Amino acid sequence: MTIPTSVTDKNFPKSKPIHSEYEQRVPLVLIHGFASGVGLWCKNFDTLSAFRRVYAFDLLGFGRSSRPPFPNTAEEVENKFVEDIEEWRKNIKLDKFILLGHSMGGFIAASYALSHPERIVHLVLIDPWGFIGQEENTTSFPSGVRGWVVKRLASFRALTTMRMIGPFGLNAMRKVRQDFGQVYFQTSASTNEPCEVNDDSHDFAHVSSWSAGKKRSVASKMGFSKASSFDSLSPYDSSVVYNYIYHINVRNPTGEDAFKNMSMLGWAVLPMLPRIRDLKADVPITFIYGGRSWVDFSSGLRTRDLRPDSYVDVMVIEDGGHHAYAEYADEFNNYVNTIAHLVDEGHVFHAGGEEAVQMAAASSYHPTSTFNETNSSEVSPSK
């Protein structure tokens, strides 16, 4: 196998038997984003895996995965990611599952769903990159010398500078990305919870969003809530996340090459939005965006418009950034667990409206202690 990180039977604790109902629940597969790895799901594994098997792996070229060369064209690179994920699925012997991807991982998850829709019972896209292409960018491409410079810069790998400065790269990353320390280790100023808002800038229906000081979390009514991850300062050293990100990105950057070949100045060469309408109509999609993220949630709204006969829900964590899954982990985990529970119950996700939220509000579901005691989120790399 070339996909090196997975959750297999050997990763599950043998001292506590896994409840048969736990085994029957639809598994969840997580795909991380650019320059990331399975470690950045650290604030999600415990809660999500309390109810079902959770699988995660480092994409080829990233994390602790192998670093094979990638093809040179965007289409070939995309197909390579999809083919290797399918190889991994066959090896794990998964049948149907909920597929969740963040950022670039959201793009790859959508591409996988297009190629293998029979495997996907729900597609969850977190701040997905690559839905909008350069041709839809309102900023004109510079010409002349400036255009030449921009094109030259676009040919460089994103993290080249960090590697070039050697041992100073870690400190440089700390300075440039101070937000990671805040996202993973510092106290949050507020707790976000669900509400309904209207987006006046688009001719679309409601966008579900989380914001502070609103009504009690819909997901918490289902029994998924835990004490907030941000009730106090983390006892862990914030250098851990920086060390992790730095060391998984100083290796042979073939994953960066893959991303570079799929993009132009950060925009997707083969944007997903024109293609998402071709996804089978019975595959429901939930988008979750950070309200302060650089990713525009209009891509989710436009997807809903392109798929009028399919379920497309758009959630916005109003105070969240691009890594809202970690920044507001409790709320994020609650909502993903809500979706997954509805899938387990055989809920039919009809086109239009936020049925998942409506069903959750009326639910009195509470997990048993058996499920809470069983943690199946551990992952281990295979060489």
TrEMBL record:
Gene3D superfamilies: alpha/beta hydrolase. Residues 27-326 form the AB hydrolase-1 domain. One of its GO terms (cellular component) is mitochondrion. GO terms for biological process: lipid homeostasis; phosphatidic acid biosynthetic process. SUPFAM superfamilies: alpha/beta-Hydrolases. Belongs to the peptidase S33 family. ABHD4/ABHD5 subfamily. PANTHER family: PUMMELIG, ISOFORM A (PTHR42886:SF29), RE40534P-RELATED (PTHR42886). This is Abhydrolase domain-containing protein 4. It comes from Echinococcus granulosus (Hydatid tapeworm).
